[in-house]
Structure formats: C-alpha cells, structure tokens
Amino acid sequence: MSVVVFMLAFPAAAFATNCYVIAAAPGEECLVVDPGIGVLPTLQEIFREHRLRPAAVLLTHGHLDHVYSVTPVCQGETPAVVPAYVHQDDRYRLTDPITYLDPAIVAAFEQQFGAKASWTEPSEIVTLGDKESVSVAGIDLTTLHAPGHTEGSVMFGIEAVPDGIPADLDRTMITGDVIFAGSIGRTDLHGGSDAAMRRSLRDVVYPLPDTTLLLPGHGPATTMERERASNPYLRGFGA
C-alpha cells in the first residue's frame, strides 16, 4: 500500500521549470527536485511554513534552468551541507552549466535579471547510475536513466503518491525533461540525441504502469495512462 507523501510544486522565475519539494510529512526532512532560477524565496517560505529541512537536492539533469539554485539550497541555512544527486553522465555539467548554454540564451537571462549569470559548484555531489535505489528523508526512490534530452537525464520513481491524488494512481515518477504532458524534451541541445530519446521512450517510459503519476520538468502533471493513449511520441511502441 502506498504511503502518504507531502509534495509541493511551483514554477521557477525563468523557463517555467517545475521545482518540487517532497517529504514524508510536514515537519520532516525534505527533498528538493530541480531548484531552478529564482526559486530561493519561495523555497524558504515553504520550508518555514511547513517546518521542512532540506536533506538532499535531486537533479533530473544538468541544464541550467534545472540546477541554477542547487548550490544556495545545498549550502543554505542548515548546519550540514546538503548533497546534490545527479546521474554520473551529467556530473560534468555541474562544473559550469553556463558553458553549455547558447550565448543568446545567456544574454537573454542576463537582460531579464539584470545581472551576469554566475556559477558555483555544489561542495558535495553524489553521482547516480541506472536503477539505483536511494533512501533520503524517509523516502525511497529509484533512478531510471533515460538519456536523449541530455546524456545523464534520469527519472526518479517513488512507490507512493502525494496526499489527495486519486486512488487509481499508486506511484509517482518525476520525469524531468524526458516526457511532458503531450510532448517530450527537445534533443537539439548539447548532449541531446534523437536516437537515445527514442530508446528511452520505448524502453524506459512506455513500460511504466498506467497507474503512474507523471511529474514533468515543465508544464502540468499527467498520468502514464493518459500519455500512452494520447502522446504522439509514444505511438507505435505497443504494436
């Protein structure tokens, strides 16, 4: 039987990147997933309101819009340094993810926020492999390596759903930029691959049970049943 998981989600200040805060219950340690651009004030408010203490940061991949605030979260107000978890194939991006951005995107970012984009690498980084089990803050997760958007894109699976989710859903998959509601992540950026994405969709995403709640890196939540029936990028895999 699934346990109740406390979860909040909100979009970052740029690129509408979803940031997730997950805990077993209010007043406990929590996980922060993909802390993007401008999320710190909202995160701090959530921590205070729900009495949460960050225990780890989970990164679905190493693009700047998903990792921009990882170091401030990891080295924030908690006494101990909070580790950042990332797949081993995207570990190199945390050295300086700005390097791998199109200069036009960097210029647009700096114009919007009125400051030069800067980067400091987290002091404690834990690398993950495929189908690796992680237990942090009282939550058990499994990583699924799903390259295509980047070499080290992963999805994080939890054998539980947030409180208030319909009873016909019994597990959660945080998908990053692998799959969205009705679409998938782009493959034309540095480290992307159409062929790798197609393999990930066929071998990693499509086999997920229909009872899976999907929480993507951008846009609304969806379900595996809905995407299997309507997402054009999953057509043909069940034939």
TrEMBL record:
Cofactor(s) this protein cannot do without = Zn(2+)
Please list the GO terms describing molecular function.
Answer: hydrolase activity; metal ion binding
EC number(s) in its UniProt entry?
3.-.-.-
Q: What class of enzyme is it?
A: hydrolase
Instruction: Name the InterPro entries for this protein.
Output: MBL_Glyoxalase_II (IPR051453), Metallo-B-lactamas (IPR001279), RibonucZ/Hydroxyglut_hydro (IPR036866)
- Residues that span the membrane, as ranges: none
Leader sequence segment: 1-16
UniProt keyword terms in alphabetical order: Hydrolase, Metal-binding, Signal, Zinc
Among Pfam families, the record links this protein to:
Lactamase_B (PF00753)
Boundaries of every Metallo-beta-lactamase domain copy: 16-218
Looking up CDD domains in the UniProt record yields: metallo-hydrolase-like_MBL-fold
From which domain of life does this come? Bacteria
What PANTHER family does the database record attribute to this sequence?
Answer: HYDROXYACYLGLUTATHIONE HYDROLASE GLOC (PTHR46233:SF3)
List the protein's name.
Putative enzyme
| Organism (species) | Nostocoides australiense Ben110
